Amino acid sequence: MWIDTHCHLDAHEFGAQSLDVAARAAAAGVSVIMAMAVERGNFGAVAALAARAPNVTYALGIHPICVPQAQDEDLDVLRAAVETALDDPNFVGIGEIGLDYFIPLLCEPAMREKQERFFRAQLRIARDFDLPVMTHVRRSQDQVLKHLRQIRPPGGIAHAFNGSFQQAQAFIGLGLHLGFGGAMTFTRALQIRRLATELPLSSIVLETDSPDIAPSWIHPGRNTPDQLPRIGTALAELRGIGEAELREAVHRNSLAAIPRLAAYLAS
């Protein structure tokens, strides 16, 4: 039983195939796909997919890449949507949220300030409703950590982690798990592979970030959640353990990172 802790199942790359993609993942042994919202306009889309697919859950949030177009009132809409979603067993947390200091537009001073303001507001929503966060951390590890220390949501996942060991330990110390996926499967990704090998196994969860971050065997093609078991096998090989042991560990870690998943799987 595998859990894909980060996916964009409603992305335009999937077109009308999202439910078929979810079904193929289920056939491959992926029992849960966590679909991330990225803006106000797709809150309903991820919830609708989760309502129609038996192995899909969802999170609600405003992605840093979508912050330039976002309005302050979107944060009020998010808070209201989260409060309503608490009664939905398919709803699992706040995401995708965070900071991105890779894209030039987002590095401009005014946009950095807006990103941080939106991130802090969403961290408060997570804290207020006792929900985990799925964080986007691209060239922004220390800044994300700063805000996490100040607002302290109840855990979550640092998605597509690619920081230092010291930064990894800081995220773990704040109660977050670290997401690893397709990037780890490239032999040239030395730092990510070292992190995935040497960090405590108890701190790691798996993800695809579909349709992005395709693993080496399908790069540069479209990524899909049914690739997760093979990504898991790659991690087991890196760590020198059996696939079954790895699968059980990351499943347990995913439930620890996202507590609402346990009730979802029991339903």
From TrEMBL:
Domain of life: Bacteria
Amino-acid positions noted as binding a divalent metal cation 1 in the UniProt annotation, renumbered to this chain: 6, 8, 96, 209
Pfam families named among the record's database cross-references: TatD_DNase
CDD domains: TatD_DNAse
GO MF annotation list: hydrolase activity, acting on ester bonds; metal ion binding
Record keywords: Hydrolase, Metal-binding
SUPFAM superfamilies the record matches: Metallo-dependent hydrolases
InterPro entries for this protein: DNase_TatD-rel_CS, Metal_Hydrolase, TatD-like
Annotated positions binding a divalent metal cation 2: 136, 159
PANTHER family attached to this UniProt entry: D-AMINOACYL-TRNA DEACYLASE
Family note: Belongs to the metallo-dependent hydrolases superfamily. TatD-type hydrolase family.
Protein name: TatD family hydrolase
Organism: Telluria aromaticivorans
